[in-house]
Amino acid sequence: MDYQSTELFLFDIEGTTTPIEFVHKVLFPYSVQNFQTFFSKNSAEPGFAEELIQYSKNETEYKEEVSNSPGSLSEFCKFLVSKDRKLGILKEIQGRIWKIGYESGELKSSIFKDVPAFLERIQKTGKRAAVYSSGSVEAQILIYKYCEAGDLTRFFENYFDTAVGGKREANSYTKIAEKLSIHPSSIVFFTDIKEEAEAATKAGIKPIILSRPGNHPQGEHPFPVIENFDGILS
Fold it and tell me: For the whole prediction, is pTM greater than 0.85?
C-alpha cells in the first residue's frame, strides 16, 4: 500500500495498538470488581440506573429483574461484560471506573512496542492520527495517557466511540471522515476485525488488518494483513 498518499491513520485499539489480553484480563476484570463500589458511591448519578433498567428489558438472556439498587445494577453490568456487549452506557461506566484505577496507579495500560515509534513517524511526516474504538472516548484517552510508554495522547487529534455508530456500519466511517474534514480515500484504518474492514471499505476508507499475538483468527478476506507497524513511513 502507498502510505505516502495517506493523510490520516485511524486506529482501533483492542488487538491493534493494545493486546486483547490486557483488555480482557486486566481492564474488564477491574471494572467487574468495582461495579458495586461505583454504584454505591454514584447512586444519585442521573441516568445510569434508568438507562440500564430500560436496556435490561431487551436483554432476554438475563432472567433477573433489574432495579436501581447498587447490587442489582452491578450484577447486570457483570452480565453485560460477560457477553461483551458494546452498550454505550456500560462503556461510559467502565471508563469512569478505569479513570479511578489509572489515576490511583492501580492500572497501567499495555501498548505494543512498535506503536510509539510509528506514532512518532506519523507526526514527523506531517500526517494525522485519530482513534475509533467501541470503548468510550474517556476510556480511549486513559489507555494512551497512562501507558507503559508514557503519555501518547499528544499524537492523536481526535477520538471516536460508538456515539458515531457501530464499528461494523459503513455510515460510522463516513461520519468520522466528515467530522475530520478529510476525504475517506485519504484515510487508512487499522483493525483486527474483517467485518470492520468491510464497513470501512464501503465508506471509501482503506483498511488494514493487524495479526497480533492473541488476536482471533479472521475468515477469508481480501484486505492487507500486517503483524506490526514496523517499516511504515520509514
Answer: yes
Taking the C-alpha atoms of residue 144 and residue 202, their distance in angstroms, rounded to an integer, is: 29
Domain spanning 23-104, CATH architecture? Orthogonal Bundle (1.10)
What are the residues facing 14 on neighbouring strands? 18
Indicate the domain borders of the chain.
3-18+109-226, 23-104
CATH class of 3-18+109-226: alpha beta
Cα of 180 vs its chain's centroid, Å:
18
Render pLDDT for 142-172 as a digit per residue (tens, 0 to 9). Answer: 999 999 999 999 999 999 999 999 999 999 9
